[in-house]
Write a structure and sequence with these properties.
Layout (H helix, E strand, L loop, with lengths): L8 H7 L26 H17 L7 H21 L3 E4 L5 E5 L5 E4 L2 E4 L1 H20 L3 H6 L17
Antiparallel strand pairs: 1-2, 3-4
């Protein structure tokens, strides 16, 4: 989606509505804490529950956020897996069958002939950080986005109670 992000309705009310266009009332989905899907790996499930705990404490989590939580948990799991792989030595089997160490544990580059190359884990980490940042922003879990997101009020009352007799 190109262009600027729309200004939240509550900010448009505060700043005024010079165009006099009708303001949209944002939907207020029911607050809940979704359970992790069964197809997630064990480490992604841990990340999912960690993110649900953070979002639930802010009061911004709704039942419709399950897919976004799944993407965020996958990105966090990929980031942690890539960083763990970077902490290991990079090795390959040489032409004579001997195991050759290309890069020490934690090294960001390795030598391939006359060239120095970045380890593949560096690209995986950059991609996972980009995806994680995007998902966290959409869920309102970054410091800047926390200012833009409003928490859903917890209501246990029936909004249609006055109509039922």
């Amino acid at each position: 989606m190109k262009g600027r992000k729309p200004v939240p309705t509550h900010l448009r009310v505060i700043k005024g509505n010079p165009s006099r266009r009708p303001l949209r009332r944002p939907p207020a989905p029911a607050r809940s804490s979704p359970t992790p899907p069964s197809h997630l790996s064990a480490s992604a499930r841990i990340a999912y529950l960690e993110i649900v705990g953070l979002a639930s404490s802010l009061g911004t989590l709704a039942s419709s956020d399950a897919i976004a939580l799944e993407g965020c948990a996958g990105a966090l799991d990929d980031l942690r897996t890539s960083r763990a792989a970077l902490a290991l030595e990079l090795t390959e089997v040489g032409p004579d069958g001997v195991l050759v160490t290309l890069a020490a544990a934690g090294a960001r580059t390795y030598r391939s002939g006359a060239l120095y190359r970045a380890r593949p884990e560096i690209a995986h980490i950059a991609d996972a950080e980009r995806r994680l940042s995007s998902w966290l922003s959409k869920l309102g879990l970054t410091p800047v986005d926390r200012e833009r997101v409003t928490a859903y009020p917890r209501s246990d009352e029936n909004p249609f109670a006055e109509f039922s007799a």
